[in-house]
Design a protein that fits this description.
6 helices; ABATE; Jann2411-like fold; ABATE_dom_sf; about 180 residues; mainly alpha
Length: about 180
């Protein structure tokens, strides 16, 4: 199995991408177990998903969205702290030798999906906030888009969920000036 990169490297980016994808999927009221399972599988997770898992994960997604919607680092930190209030002490796991060693803040390797989702997201969002001293992501600024994103880049603060939304916003602004 490959050796993971530094803490703020590949593993943080992977959890950030999975978190944003899950929050965006769970924002849709018609998202059910099948769609959540697809998102998880796209990120290498194979746990079964039941209807009760989806509803509990939807609650966690709302708390994660609050972090990403925060306008200031202080507001984001308060939302991250609220998210982490349900987390457990950090522990290392390799999932019985099936993965590389990594940190978990859920209760055990068989914790409910919502607990795992909130705990892993909270840990990554806390790391990103403390590393950059700014909110760790946002809600897309493009007109008509409410997707969230988590900013793992080292450049300036992101405002859009994708290049497509950024381009649409620039074109819209250009046309408004014309």
């Amino acid at each position: 199995m490959p050796t993971p990169t530094a803490l703020t490297g590949r593993s943080v980016r992977a959890v950030a991408a999975r978190t944003a994808d899950l929050v965006n999927a769970l924002a849709r009221p018609d998202t059910g177990p099948g769609r959540v399972r697809e998102v998880l599988r796209a990120h290498g997770e194979t746990d079964p998903v039941a209807g009760a898992d989806v509803e509990a994960m939807r609650g966690a997604a709302g708390r994660i969205r609050a972090v990403l919607a925060a306008d200031t680092a202080a507001a984001a930190a308060a939302a991250v702290n609220a998210l982490l209030a349900g987390a457990h002490r950090p522990r290392l796991t390799d999932h019985g030798g099936t993965s590389h060693w990594h940190v978990h803040t859920d209760s055990c390797d068989d914790a409910p999906l919502a607990e795992w989702f909130a705990a892993s997201a909270g840990l990554v969002l806390a790391l990103l906030l403390t590393d950059r001293q700014r909110p760790p992501g946002g809600v897309c600024a493009a007109h008509g888009c409410d997707l969230v994103f988590i900013d793992t880049g080292s450049g300036s603060t992101r405002r859009f969920c994708s290049k497509r939304c950024a381009t649409r916003a620039r074109v819209r602004a250009h046309r408004a000036r014309a």
